[in-house]
Write a structure and sequence with these properties.
The complex is a heterodimer. Chain A has 17 helices and 2 strands. By secondary structure, chain A is an all-alpha fold. Chain A has a domain of 300 residues: ABC transporter involved in vitamin B12 uptake, BtuC (Orthogonal Bundle), CATH 1.10.3470. Chain A is globular, with a radius of gyration of 22 Å. Chain B is an alpha/beta fold. Helix content of chain B is 32%, strand content 27%. In chain B, strands 6-9-10-3-11-12 form a 6-stranded mixed beta sheet, with helices on both faces. In chain B, strands 18-21-22-15-23-24 form a 6-stranded mixed beta sheet, sandwiched between helices. A 4-stranded antiparallel beta sheet of chain B has the order 2-1-4-5, with helices on one face. Classes of the chains: A mainly alpha, B alpha/beta.
């Protein structure tokens, strides 16, 4: 093991989620720094960071659901259409039925759940491939949006717009910053320290070796530094702005779903189903129920994303959510999920989504046209996954591989990156009859 | 025999992976026209050695020299070694299920005429090759429609289509029943008469003893010795000593059964095939298992043993038509796998890679996979408890791994099987059904697994062992049922076991008087 890997292992090894994201975070930081230079410092200004969050939060919310769908071995092409359909239903309900906006939000989530359950029914209980089911859903609900809205835009009221375009209120003494954002930053710092100490005590309890204390110190200093920087940027924007409400929704969802997928029986069964459906079934996992719930959940998150978008643009329109599914899927794969299922993390997908978002944003800041931005994004997706596949086949450190061991602590053994072990259970890379998973 | 010139000579081959030395100086001399067996425990380096030979590990990534047909060779891929006439047939067959026998035989090697595939020639040659390997089938039959024994023959025909000089078979009979195994071994002898040299890797020592001319034994990545079977008076015990470095006093651990009252009883269990509605795979099966008893199920492949087991385990196979299960005299409803687990049933499948394990998981996740609720509070998994559980089984079952954080895909077959056993032991079952628990596992690990089985029985659990190896059943079980074509044809107590009689009952539906 090289010295570099030794340091990496120590610095990022202790707490599980951070360690795996090392490679991806490295890429993200590189992109940020590159654009920071290319745009003469525009990228990291408060205004731009706030814009990025409010502009991409709904894609990242979709990426959360999409990660779980892809881990379970499916795909969902309908998320953009579900978002658009929910948006128009919610907008119409407020416009025509005078539904109060909080109830409209609940209605929207219910619509998403019903559509998701509809897809889940076909996928789980009838056995139609999700690709087909959601391709159908994509057409049906896009059409549904235009049918209900007469292919026209429908405005939404002020209160509703908060979830997409709102900011935290200004409270407390005048500090020159948004105080609530500062408070969130402090809470985040405390949480990170608490987590690190808990991780250390857990490792002690397990009887495994802890990294030296100074390593934990350096790691914490790095993380707290990043949080502090981000906090000051988000709190220090134009008066009246802060970390957007949609960003807060996103952070809550990321934390909740990360915990769910990693630390609960239910979350684990998703990985089990995607990793080997038959084995999962023979271990007592209720295959159909897992598939059903994963699709239903995707429907709910699509509805939420759609409502946030409608709130941000103040109206629901017939073109809402076009090709969002592709952005969400790209984020998940850049973030290290396997095409065949069973591998991938929420954290990885979020970082993957941020890579795409910052790339998009940076190119726009530089004045690159939409046409070229698309070409570049496409090539980045291809190269990111191709490089990882290549690295893996050469047995080198795999950026994405390091992201995709859902329940593993990094640095458990030098054998972790071994290309193949000299055991008899290992066969030549020919195509066996029972061939299963090839991860990206 | 030993006078024949060496066809292949591998000299002080070394190969290491980061952190592990797989081969630490292996010498192998294979003489032209012989059948050469390579023996060794899992992890001894057999597969790695074959990967070096076939060019999977390219020249330059390993140390040492390979001489083939008198010249040094440096293969840069499988293609190169195949062009030289070296063909490996793997345990997991490389056939395309949806293609016909002919198409598979010539896959990647199709006879052409002006750029297009010449199916007439292919068809004719396929028939010749099938004749050569004794495969009687329509060459247009799809691979998925023939049994695994015939698939093996298609693989060999495929090798012959490439003009093979050195045929390497990796665990060729592991998945075959007795009749197919015998046919395959006869075929190897026939090839020998035709002058084809073979290397065979196998854990079935009786087969090796019967067929090999010489045996090279590997241990810990080194050549321990090469035995000349004809000259050295080699027998199984001799081979085992070379493999494990000590004489195994008995192939089965000693134990005194402590058998209690009837634990499980199955009555009139009838199941039909999942697709073909008139085919019954279980015809009114009745059997009992007592506490502390190891009950064997003998039968040829396709006799319905696994189908019966899986159908009992939450109706995981076929369509249930009737039958009842009683536990401690009370009827229980087992309609799903979770019902089965709840009622204390466990099923260790015969194919641990395809349906027993999620190969993407690490060891600790796999161990708790069948009953995660046991280490979870309100659905949240207690990571410390999980780690400790897995650690406990690692020590207890002696799973060879640096850490329970390792992926199960990296373990050898024997250690994977121990993980599967741990997974089901963790559910604290009353009845364990073990389907081919030692398939593809080396002698040392087999012995350990027998020990685990007997320990489980000693704890007052019932154990059902399904196996295609009669000696294993006879050595391990207190009572043996025989099955043939979905019918339980007999029941023999340990004291009255007679292999020939068992074999008769395994091949006929005529009911034998219960002894």
């Amino acid at each position: 093991m090289s010295g570099f890997q030794e340091v990496k292992k120590n610095l990022f090894g202790g707490s599980a989620s951070v360690s795996r994201q090392f490679g991806m975070i490295f890429t993200l930081v590189a992109i940020i720094l590159l654009f920071q230079v290319l745009t003469d410092g525009l990228t990291l200004t408060s205004g731009n960071l706030i814009a990025v969050v409010s502009q991409y939060s709904y894609i990242l919310i979709l990426a959360i659901g999409m990660l779980m769908v892809i881990v379970a071995g499916h795909i969902d092409l309908s998320v953009g259409s579900i978002a658009a359909f929910t948006g128009i239903v919610v907008a119409k309900s407020m416009q025509n039925l005078d539904l109060p906006w909080p109830l409209a939000i609940l209605l929207g989530l219910a619509v998403g759940a019903v559509i998701g359950a509809w897809h889940g029914f076909w996928v789980a209980y009838v056995g139609v491939p999700a690709f087909i089911v959601t391709l159908a859903g994509m057409l049906v609900f896009r059409g549904g949006n235009q049918f209900i809205g007469n292919a026209d835009t429908v405005p939404v009221p002020e209160g509703f717009r908060e979830i997409g375009a709102g900011y935290l209120p200004e409270v407390g003494p005048s500090t020159g910053y948004n105080n609530l954002t500062l408070l969130l930053g402090v809470i985040a710092c405390v949480a990170v320290v608490w987590r690190e100490s808990r991780a250390r005590s857990t490792r002690r309890e397990m009887g495994t070796q802890n990294a030296p204390l100074w390593i934990s110190g350096v790691r914490l200093a790095l993380m707290v530094g990043v949080i502090a920087f981000a906090t000051l940027r988000f709190a220090g924007g134009r008066v009246g702005t802060s970390l957007p409400v949609s960003g807060i929704i996103l952070i809550v969802l990321v934390l909740a779903y990360s915990f769910y997928t990693r630390n609960t029986v239910g979350g684990r069964s998703i990985y089990a189903v995607g990793g080997n459906a038959r084995a999962a079934e023979l271990s007592g996992v209720k295959l159909k129920r897992v598939n059903f719930l994963v699709m239903t959940n995707m429907g709910i998150l699509s509805a939420l994303a759609g409502m946030i978008f409608v709130a941000r643009s103040a109206a629901s329109g017939p073109q809402d959510g076009l090709s969002w599914e592709l952005d969400a899927i790209a984020a998940v794969f850049i973030g290290g999920a396997a095409v065949s299922g069973g591998l991938g993390t929420i954290g990885g997908s979020i970082v993957g989504g941020l890579v795409m978002a910052l790339l998009n944003n940076g190119l726009q800041l530089m004045g690159v046209g939409v046409d070229l931005v698309q070409i570049i994004k496409g090539l980045v997706l291809l190269l990111a996954v191709a490089l990882d596949v290549y690295n893996k086949s050469q047995g080198r450190f795999s950026v994405i591989g390091s992201l995709t061991r859902p329940f593993r602590r990094q640095g458990s053994s030098p054998a972790a990156e071994r290309p193949d072990s000299p055991s008899d259970s290992d066969r030549l890379p020919v195509r066996p009859l029972t061939h299963r998973k090839t991860s990206v | 025999m030993s006078a024949a010139p060496a066809l292949l000579e591998m000299r002080s081959i070394t190969k290491s992976f980061p952190g592990v030395t797989a081969l630490a100086g292996v010498d192998l001399v294979v003489r032209a026209g012989e059948i050469h067996a390579i023996c060794g425990e899992n992890g001894a380096g057999k597969s790695t050695l074959m990967k070096v030979l076939s060019g999977v590990h390219q020249h330059g990534t390993y140390g040492g020299e390979i001489f083939y047909g008198g010249h040094e060779v440096r293969f840069r891929g499988i293609r190169a070694s195949e062009d030289a006439g070296i063909v490996i047939i793997h345990q997991e067959l490389a056939l395309v299920p949806g293609m016909s026998i002919t198409e598979n035989i010539f896959l990647g090697n199709e006879p052409r005429k002006r750029g297009a595939i010449d199916w007439k020639v292919a068809q004719r040659r396929a028939l010749e090759l099938m004749e050569q390997v004794g495969l009687k089938e329509d060459p247009d039959t799809l691979i998925m429609d023939i049994g695994v024994g015939k698939q093996q023959l298609v693989e060999i025909a495929k090798a012959f289509a490439k003009d093979v000089k050195l045929l390497i078979l990796d665990e060729p009979t592991a998945a075959l029943n007795e009749a197919d195994s015998r046919h395959l071994l006869d075929l190897l002898r026939e090839f020998k008469r035709q002058g084809i040299t073979s290397i065979i890797i196998s854990h079935k020592l009786n087969e090796i003893e019967a067929i090999a001319d010489s045996i090279t034994i590997l241990r810990d990545g080194r050549t321990i010795e090469t035995l000349d079977v004809r000259a050295d008076g080699v027998n199984e015990a001799r081979i085992v000593r070379g493999m494990v470095g000590r004489e195994l006093s008995s192939r089965f651990p000693d134990h005194t059964p402590d058998i209690g009252e009837v634990l499980f009883e199955v009555r009139d269990w009838t199941v039909r095939h999942p697709i073909s509605s008139e085919r019954l795979v279980c015809k009114g099966s009745n059997f009992t298992v007592r506490r502390g008893e190891v009950v064997g199920f003998a039968g040829l492949m396709g006799s319905g043993r696994s189908e019966l087991a899986m159908s009992l385990f939450g109706r995981s196979y076929g369509v249930w038509l009737g039958g009842r299960i009683y536990k401690n005299g009370v009827e229980i409803q087992v309609k799903s796998v979770s019902d089965a687990i709840k009622h204390g049933l466990a099923y260790v499948s015969e194919d641990r890679k395809a349906i027993g394990l999620n190969l993407l998981d690490d060891i600790k996740t796999s161990v708790v996979a069948a009953k995660p609720a046991k280490i979870a509070r309100r659905g949240v998994i207690d990571q410390v408890a999980e780690y400790r559980t897995a650690e406990g089984y690692r020590r207890d079952l002696r799973i060879k791994t640096p850490s329970v954080d390792e992926g199960v895909a990296k373990l050898s077959g024997g250690n994977q099987q121990k993980v599967v056993l741990a997974k089901w032991m963790f559910t604290d079952p009353d009845l364990l059904i073990l389907d081919e628990p030692t398939r593809g596992i080396d002698v040392g690990a087999k012995f350990e697994i027998y020990g685990i089985i007997q320990r489980l029985a000693a704890q007052g659990r019932g154990v059902v062992v399904i196996s295609s190896e009669l000696p294993e059943l006879i050595g391990l079980c207190d009572r043996i049922y025989t099955m043939f074509e979905g019918t339980i044809t007999g029941e023999v107590a340990r004291a009255d076991v007679d292999p020939e009689r068992l074999m008769t009952q395994m091949t006929t539906t005529r009911k034998m008087p219960v002894s």
